[in-house]
Amino acid sequence: MKRLIPHSIILIAALILGACASGAARSEPQYVDESPAMPASDVAPEQFSTEQAPAGGGGGEASSVERLVIQNADLVIVVSDVEGRMEEIQKMAEKMGGFVVSSNLYQGYTSNYIPVPEGTLTIRVPAEKLDEALGLIKEDAVEVQSETRSGQDVTAEYVDLKSRLKTYEAAEKELTELMENAQNTDEVVNIFNQLMYYREQIEIIKGQIKYYEEAAALSAVSIRLVAEETIQPVTIGKWEPKGVALEAIQDLLDFWKNFVDFMIRFVIYTLPVLITIAIPFYLAFIGARWVFRKMRGKKKIEPKAEEKK
């Protein structure tokens, strides 16, 4: 026991020293944070904090930036009049201060293969009126088959672009001043090339900033309009089949439709093509057989003539 005590004391002392050392290492960043901050550079403010930046410091610009969220929506609605409803939605978007991005009216088919109109429409409306627009779109719908809303927070990307823009504009200003004071042609050419690069980057970043601002200000709504006849159930007399029975009847109708389509195509297209190809081969076969029989008949006549002699 006496021998174990000194070893235990040494081990505990080592553990205490190790803990003290690790504690000192962890406390170092706290000491650095408490030191007075250096003034921010006007040339490269690369990072902003929208939550912790002080109101009067260099982060004031970032803290004043509102959250930028791009909101979009997708709808599939059933309507009684597809074409008329499309016109109403287009007028609604323009009345709200938005516009129509794309519009497409085409022909669809019911389960009984009856042609019906269908349409797709994409509009943009002010983001603050998105809920109102969705309510008006669904107002006269027979059925809303699906509705999806999505939001993308691009605040961080937007603030980063603003920071990069400020950096590039500061660099452009400095290069412009250097170019004015350049002494020889080589310096002018070198500075000019760098200046053109920064100006190109500035235009690209301005375009990205404009896209984010417009996308956040105007929400995109994509609508698919389905005719009411498309969702009418299959009925046999007063019986309305459902589940497996409905699927079986639908499969049977599909089979007969495909079979009739095949027969029509076969009679109108495939059969005439086969006949057109077969006639020359048949005539060639008849001609070859006639020539072969004629040659064979001559060979039989010659031996008989020799026997008579």
Helix content: 55-70%
Largest sheet: 5 strands, mixed
Number of domains: 4
Summarize model confidence as the mean pLDDT: 76
Helix-strand topology string? HHEHEEHEHHEH
Structural summary, described in words:
The protein is α+β, with helices and mostly antiparallel strands and 309 residues long. The N terminus is likely disordered. Helix 5 packs antiparallel against helix 6. It has four domains: 34 residues; 99 residues; 59 residues; 58 residues. The radius of gyration is 42 Å and the shape is flat. It is built from seven helices and five strands; from the N terminus they run ααβαββαβααβα. The chain has a five-stranded mixed sheet.
List keywords for this structure.
4 domains; 5 strands; disordered N terminus; alpha+beta; 5-stranded mixed sheet; 309 residues; 7 helices; single chain; 18% strand
Task: Draw up the topology in text.
Blueprint: H1 4-34, H2 60-63, E1 69-79, H3 82-95, E2 99-109, E3 115-126, H4 130-139, E4 143-153, H5 155-180, H6 185-217, E5 218-227, H7 244-308
Quick recap:
59% of the residues lie in helices and 18% in strands. The protein has 309 residues and is an alpha+beta fold. α5 (155-180) packs antiparallel against α6 (185-217).
